[in-house]
Amino acid sequence: MSQGDSESSPSRFRARVHVYPRREILDPQGRAIGEALARLGFDEVAGVRAGKGFEVELTATDKSAAVAQLERMCSELLANPITEDYSVELLEDSAR
Amino acid sequence: MKCGVVVFPGSNCDHDVYHVLRHVTDQDASFLWHERDDVDGCDLVVLPGGFSYGDYLRAGAMAAVSPVMAAVRQHADNGGLVLGICNGFQILLEAGLLPGAMRRNRDLRFLGCDVRVRVERNDLPFTRGYDVGQVLRLPVGHAEGNYADTAAALDQLEANGQVVFRYVDASGDADEAGSGNLNGAERAIAGICNRQGNVCALMPHPERAAEEVLGQTDGLAMFAGLVGSLTATTDSRVGATS
User: Per-residue pLDDT tens for B190-225?
Assistant: First the structure.
């Protein structure tokens, strides 16, 4: 569908979205995993948060538009802003 | 009164609620499929327990953006009654019809047992059949019932009187760290309502404690109270709109 690289034609992007429990919110799953790591001898582990990852493929006019769309996806569905933080990362092979 | 029980893929307490409304309290009850975009003129909409959409993403998150929820939001905005039970509570939180969020239970266990909850206010259609301070024994069945919000939001919730039910121990104390608060919910919150008091949700299952044959009847007064309040308001609403 995409023809040429004219600035207005949408490009395809791949992104990785990370969603984690907010630091100030108790994360019982992360704590249990941290305790399990300590039992295996990883005494250096000072904390674990257990989150989720999403790989999203999308079209957007440019990188900043892609990031803006992804952030909206996070605030509207992928993350619950009361309990979770998120981060958005465009992958290197994006914008073909 | 006309009652609608929303059915999402994965709802599993829909028939229990329908049974209580239809056969125990003798009301006009029907199911509302999640893909419809209206609530079929219902006075009361119940979001039942279950595992809507397999709890994908977060409990209630997928159901919250399903077509019927836009209609439920409209119904609530018009002052219509909405009751969320268990997964229905989670859905109402995810949809933003009630404030806060659910975390996994403190001990990471699915809880399937009876709990004690104390009625904090009885000026709502949902609780008019109870006394303030009355302790109910109701069953729970959930893995994400650990209610959370920011401290400021919780203070606001309390100041507004939006806490409707709290978990209590055998002596009736609602201590957050106490033995009655099995899932670890902040401030031992088991059920809340919106500012207007027409949207209410709780983690325990009143529909599973609404008949003598089940050995528990503490949940029946919730449905009976709704019927009583709606019989009155339906009459006045008809008069107002005709």
Answer: 999 999 999 999 999 999 999 999 999 999 999 999
| Domains of chain A as residue ranges with CATH | 11-90 (3.30.1280.10)
Within 10 A of B57 (CB to CB), how many other CB atoms are there? 18
Q: Is B207 marked active-site?
A: yes
Q: Which residue in chain B has the smallest CA separation from A77?
A: B61
Q: Helix/strand/coil (H, E, C) string of chain A?
A: CCCCCCCCCCEEEEEEEEEEECCCCCCHHHHHHHHHHHHCCCCCCCCCCCCEEEEEEEEECCHHHHHHHHHHHHHHHHCCCCCEEEEEEECCCCCC
CATH label of the domain that carries residue B150: 3.40.50.880
B158 catalytic residue (yes or no): no
Of B61, B100, B106, the CB nearest to A77: B61
Q: Which chain A residues contact residue B105 at CB under 8 A? A: 28
What is the tens place of the pLDDT at every residue in A33-72?
999 999 999 999 999 999 999 999 999 999 999 999 999 9
pLDDT band for position A94 (cuts 50, 70, 90): low
ipTM confidence: 0.80
Based on the residue annotation, tell me whether B86 is a catalytic residue of this protein: yes
Range of the domain at B130: 2-241
A28 closest CB neighbour out of B61, B94, B106: B106
- For chain B, the domain total comes to 1
- Determine, for residues B148 and A32 on separate chains, whether the beta-carbon distance falls below 8 Å: no
- Considering only CB atoms, A25 lies closest to which of B65, B105, B148, namely B148
The answer to whether the CB atoms of A77 and B57 lie below 8 A apart is: yes
